[in-house]
Design brief:
heterodimer, A: alpha/beta, four-stranded mixed sheet, 8 helices, B: fumarase
């Protein structure tokens, strides 16, 4: 059994929110540098050069990488033997949202969150979208994806027919990226969720985006798709060029004999994600 | 691949006449100085409502530039926070009446509809592309910032900025040439 206080979680979530706004994962930076070296001289390469300069400016000046500091999406993996001392908070969602509010205030993030119909700003950059998942014994692991909405808007979900197969899935992924074109701030990251139900596929596509490191039973397919997407020649900012996708990540789940849900979640090059383990 | 014209074009806003933007071609690197107005979705909706009701607009459009952006709050000691562009195509449906009223330039990120390219040609205006996601880098070109109108909209208010050498790439020129249209 493990006991964790709400104050500890709040402090760690606040730090995670701050860190994620100023600094992208090393893996993302490496991919951007590689794509900078690969591009031929032109506006695409110039853009990638400014992207790299922007990453330095963000860290040095303590300014968010992008003014769209995103909708905070949290994956909370809670071990079954972890006990949270909630204190004055009612639920784990309240605790995480308090951390988000605190981190957003401390690091001067934009208040981008509004009520969907009335468009009234909450004024705190909260709430985040919180997914509570069963986690490993003895651990509380919180992953944050600060999701920019220019790219979120270009994401799509399809209920394909069961016989669509690999080709049908590829076609849908490629068509989604083609339609997105210059809008999601390419070069992009692509998360594909395949199988499950309508909402499971969407969830998987976002989980796929959070996966760091190349390990996956689908790695070969992912790399093949990167090549296919790069042959679209959308390029950095849509200016044309070699790099349209920095990576593709696939997550799957068994599905029904009658269907094949596929969700494609797109993330901009400023792919801001991080994890804290308690 | 869009080729870069090495000669940078300089634009000082508000424009006094069409001389400066006449020489700007789609694909050119541009540096912007002077006064720029910042507005995004919610402010555009309000501007459209005002135009529809024949009410006066809160900002001068003649010779002006509107930058599609919503900044992060300025940390202590800074003029503004992170200040990169948002997706321009969401503003497409509001743009033509503004160009008709004398707006000379818009700036944001990503491609725009053919109607906007045709509008740029008709009203002799340009669309500029700022570097998407590079709000921390772009901060250094902003010399002054104030909330100008609709301040109740918070990050979606209209801001008035003074900028010097703010970098962009011309996306659509006054002949209606669009770099995203190959």
């Amino acid at each position: 059994m493990k006991k964790i206080s709400s104050e500890k979680i709040i402090a760690e979530v606040a730090k995670l929110v701050e860190r994620t706004a100023y600094r992208i994962p090393a893996e993302v930076k490496t991919a951007l540098m590689k794509s900078y070296r690969a591009e031929k001289a032109g506006s695409g390469k110039k853009y990638l050069g400014i992207i790299l300069e922007n990453l330095m400016a963000a860290e040095k000046e303590r300014l968010p990488i992008c003014q769209d500091t995103g909708l905070a999406v949290f994956f909370v993996e809670l071990g079954c033997d972890v006990i949270i001392n909630t204190g004055r908070y009612r639920t784990i969602e309240d605790i995480i949202n308090e951390g988000l509010r605190r981190g957003s205030k401390n690091s001067y993030l934009r208040r981008s969150i509004v009520s969907p119909v009335e468009r009234k700003n909450t004024g705190t950059n909260a709430p985040g979208v919180i997914h509570l998942l069963p986690g490993e014994k003895g651990k509380l692991e919180i992953t944050l994806l600060a999701k920019g909405f220019g790219s979120e808007n270009t994401s799509r979900l399809a209920m394909l027919s069961p016989n669509s197969g690999k080709e049908g899935i590829e076609e849908f992924i490629i068509e989604t990226v083609r339609q997105a074109g210059s809008l999601p701030c390419p070069p992009i990251f692509v998360g594909a969720g395949i199988g499950g139900s309508f909402e499971k596929a969407a969830l998987l596509s976002k989980i796929a985006l959070c996966r760091m490191g190349g390990k996956s039973p689908y790695r070969k397919w992912e790399k093949f798709l990167v090549k296919k997407l790069n042959s679209l020649k959308i390029g950095p900012a849509g200016f044309g060029g070699k790099t349209t996708a920095l990576d593709v990540r696939i997550e799957t789940f068994p599905t029904h004999i009658a269907g094949l849900p596929v969700a494609v979640n797109i993330s901009c090059w400023a792919h801001r994600t991080g994890t804290v383990t308690l | 691949m869009v080729r870069l014209n090495i000669m940078k074009k300089h634009l000082l806003f508000p424009l006094i006449d069409d001389r400066q933007i006449k020489s700007v071609r789609a694909g050119d690197e541009v540096e912007i100085s002077g006064t720029i107005y910042v507005a995004r979705d919610a402010a555009h909706k309000k501007l459209a409502d005002a135009l529809n009701k024949n009410k006066p607009l809160p900002l001068p459009l003649k010779g002006s530039i509107i930058y599609y952006m919503g900044p992060t709050p300025a940390p202590p000691g800074k003029i503004i926070g992170s200040c990169g562009p948002t997706t321009s195509s969401r503003m497409d449906k509001y743009t033509l009446p503004l160009l008709q009223s004398g707006l000379k330039a818009t700036m944001g990120k990503g491609g725009r509809s053919e109607e906007i390219a045709a509008g740029c040609k008709k009203y002799k205006a340009v669309y500029l592309i700022a570097y998407g996601g590079c709000g921390a880098y772009l901060n250094r070109f902003v010399k002054k910032s104030e909330c100008f109108a609709y301040c109740e909209l918070g990050p979606e208010a209209i801001y008035k900025l003074e900028v010097k050498g703010f970098p962009a790439i011309a996306g659509i020129d006054i002949k209606g040439k669009n770099i995203y249209n190959k």
